Amino acid sequence: MSLIKSLSILKRIDWLLLIAVFLLICFGLSTIYSLVLSEENPANTQTSQSFNLLYKQIAFSVLGLLLLFIFILFDYRWWYSLSGWLYLLSIILLILVLFLGQKLKGTTGWFVWGNFSFQPVELAKLAVIIFLSRCFSAWSNEKYQLKIWLKSFLVILPVCILTMLQPDFGSTAVIVLVWFGMLWLSNINKKHLLSFLIIVCLLTALSWQFLWHDYQKARILTFLNPKADPLGAGYNTRQSIIAVGSGGFWGRGLGLGTQSQLHFLPVSKADFIFAALAEELGFLGVTLIFILYFLIFYRAFRIIQNSKNDFSLFLVFGLSFMFFIQLVINIGMATGVLPITGLPLPFVSYGGSFLIISLIAIGIIQSVNLRQKNF
Fold first, then answer.
1. How far separated are the first and last CA of the chain, in Å rounded?
2. Given 30, 88, 309, 364, which is the most exposed site by the fewest CB atoms within 10 A?
3. At residue 80, does pLDDT exceed 70?
4. What are the sequence ranges of the domains in the chain?
């Protein structure tokens, strides 16, 4: 009987969604491999360390895919009752990381154990989406829409404050935008959303004056005028744009990109991996990557359409919208359209925390899809 049930589950899995995710991971690993090869030099003591990054990313991918299938079997409806505890855990971890975490890339946002690190804000994104899904589904019959706005804002407020204290502006922006999207989905009065935008502008102005660090201000100023400091604050954006443009239609080939292989492109394995991909694979490769992302969002949209309850509706929308926001911001950052925020490219960039949490999120989406007919 269990074998028959297992076969039934395998049949109902959205394999097109999983294949698209798997191929994106493969694109990421192949790009990281080509970048690591450029550092291979008998006289270079960093070579083994570079290959360790590749091996770690392979390990993260295998672990993440394993967790994906485990969370497919985990009934998504259990998250409704567990959401409060998960949210509380994420708050505790965000507090602890400020005191016990290690500062990397200017942000005190990582717990580090030997060669491995964990970024709790990635778990916090998942926890906030699950908890907001529960809240919005519970408030579906709420007559006073302003109450929904205020109560949901209080849900994200402590997470945003703790994230900004690291400081991690990019992750804060993702949390706020996901909340905004879920508010929009709840059919709240659009006048309230306009009021929210005004408040955000005021808070941004205040945070610029009192909270933002000089390097964060430099990113915004460089975005507005990238030619003002081409060898300083504008260097990353300028090199990324050159890399994207130099790929042409066919690309230079894996391991043959001049910007990425000669180390002109900064953080090429993580933040600017899209620029490295565009240079080495060209327009055709980038088009294929966009098709894979389109498949993910299309299949998620189909699951949303078939949602049988408000909780699953908000849950799948929130998780897929999180991927969409990070995709847009990362590509916008690489092409100079948006300021640099340090957000990874979903399923492609180097980084264990985001990849594993992202694959768990895909497992939850698949769990929703699997149990729609049985709700």
1. 21
2. 88
3. yes
4. 11-78+123-371
